[in-house]
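Hi L.,

You mentioned the student needs an example of a multi-chain input paired with its predicted structure. This one should do, with 271 residues in total across all chains.
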Amino acid sequence: MKLDQRKYQQLLARKCPRSPLWKDCLKAFLFGGAICTVGEGVSNFWQFRGLDTADAAAATAITMVFFGALLTCLHWYEKLAKHAGAGTIVPITGFANAIVSPAMEFKSEGLVLGLGAKLFVIAGPVLVYGIAASVVYGLILYAMGGGGAA
Amino acid sequence: MNGMEYFNAFWVGGAICAACQVLIDKTKLTPARILVSLVVLGVFLQGIGVYQPVVDYAGAGATVPLLGFGYSLAKGVAKAVAESGLLGVFTGGVTGAAGGIAAAIVFGCLFALLAKPRSKS
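Structure written out for the whole complex:
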């Protein structure tokens, strides 16, 4: 097989990606799974303390956000994220990380337009589209009879 | 309280993360876009009735990934529309996810304040 320089580079890039997909996926699976398993434990803790399933889920979200923010503050989450990729981005701890991380970086620009504004660099879009989607879903439910009470 | 529920949470949560890793590696989707997509997808999946069985099966494996945030938005809005009609369309989503939202803001603010500047270690 004859190859010129450019084709060789293309072939090289295709054959030797920086990190193989299966390895990234395995790590994302293991770390992401581990964080969810911790979440299950936290959820059981809250149910043991007397919360029902729905309240325990909310309390678990709050607890996981707390730990995500704490680990980000200590610069530990970024070290974990280097290995875990999506395994640390996708859980709600990653959402907390995405909030704290820009806020602490831009803290020096002031409490209002630095910290306060940068908290929402990623949380903002998530809330905008999440809440918009929930309103669309609500409108559809309402138009369809909304469970009767309307 | 048995080992099975932890196992289910582990493999379902892990599988969601692995699927998103494929998206990150194979497309140009940034983490921010992944997070936004997951929340909207969570609302959609709960809306068509697919996500509740996953939550029942996997517990935190389904609620801890950001899909679960969309799930609680959708669940909140369904409850509120049933209870208070059109008003619920607007109040339900945020009510359903209120704990997570308030925690994210308060702990985000607190820990960003406490954080030491980045050190090269």
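You could point out the following to them. Chain B has one domain: 3-114. The mean pLDDT of chain B is 93.

Best wishes,
N.
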